[in-house]
Amino acid sequence: MFAMADSNCALVIPARRRSTRLPDKLLLRAGGKTVLQHTFEAACRTCRPDQVLIATDDGEIAREASRFGASFVLTSADCASGTDRVAEAVRQLPEAQIIVNLQGDEPEIDPGSIDRLVDRLQQDRSASMATLVTPIRDRALLDDPACVKVVFDAAGRALYFSRSAIPMVRDGDLDVCLTADPPLFHQHIGVYAYRRDLLLRLASLPPGQLEEVEKLEQLRVLEQGETILVTLVDAPTRGIDTAEDFAAFAARQAA
């Protein structure tokens, strides 16, 4: 278990063992380290979070975290989502006022992007949450429902997230629009920073109608009238969802 410490910002890595598409992916090894260890070490290279810990309900994940010296907390097996798992862990960190949720399958996350995300939320007291976005320049990606799109206002506040291509180009050449500068289309990257009150409240709120239709948890926040800030980064993270993703990651580690 982890030692309690005063902290204004905590980064929590929710780590579920039994993923559907690639079972035990967090325990797969590349370059002599598990995916979980790679992600934890990347998180530890951030500057803004005061502490980094892993939240899991699995004994094998906990043993692996202990093996490489990570702080961890055991959570309930009943957590329905990573957000719920993070919220349960944060209840044991009363001093943490900003919480970053980083999935355990993001071994190549840019630490600087996380720092920018925290800075963005700290600088705007009107918002309760922040997340990352990156431009979309590829037609196939724009049309892919697995790629979540986001539109936002001039102040960088999210207006809507969707699996559909938004905004819809009514007139004009879509391929030309994909090259627009500034970019017209943006992909959402599922790394979040929350204010404590919203995170703990979010876990207790029922899904909204838009969330149920799109199957996107962040829409629950917008449906509650909360503000989500977006932070633009140059490229998407390379998360590991499939065996092909892991093989590509392992090849990069071996290069």
What does this structure look like?
- The chain has ten helices and eleven strands.
- The protein has two domains: 107 residues, Spore Coat Polysaccharide Biosynthesis Protein SpsA, Chain A; 127 residues, Spore Coat Polysaccharide Biosynthesis Protein SpsA, Chain A.
- With 255 residues, it is α/β, with parallel strands linked by helices.
- It has a seven-stranded mixed sheet, with helices on both faces. The protein has a two-stranded antiparallel ribbon with strand order 2-3.
- β4, α2 and β5 form a beta-alpha-beta unit.
- The N terminus is likely disordered.
- α3 packs across α7.
Write the layout of secondary structure elements.
Elements: E1 9-15, E2 29-30, E3 33-34, H1 35-44, E4 51-56, H2 59-67, E5 71-74, H3 82-90, E6 98-101, H4 111-123, E7 129-135, H5 139-143, E8 149-152, E9 158-162, H6 174-177, E10 186-195, H7 196-202, H8 209-214, H9 218-223, E11 228-232, H10 243-254
Q: Any idea how many domains?
A: 2
Major β-sheet strand ordering: 5-4-1-6-10-7-11
DSSP strand content = 15-25%
| Uncertain residue segments | 1-7
CATH architecture of the largest domain: Alpha-Beta Complex
Taking the alpha carbons of the first and last residues, their distance comes to 35 Å
Task: Give the overall pLDDT as a whole number.
Answer: 92
Summing up helix and strand content along with how strands pair, one would put the structural category as: alpha/beta
Order of helices and strands: EEEHEHEHEHEHEEHEHHHEH
Radius of gyration: 18 Å
CATH superfamily heading of the largest domain: Spore Coat Polysaccharide Biosynthesis Protein SpsA, Chain A
CATH topology of the largest domain: Spore Coat Polysaccharide Biosynthesis Protein SpsA, Chain A
Determine the fraction of residues in helical runs and give it as a percent range. 25-40%
DSSP helical segment count = 10
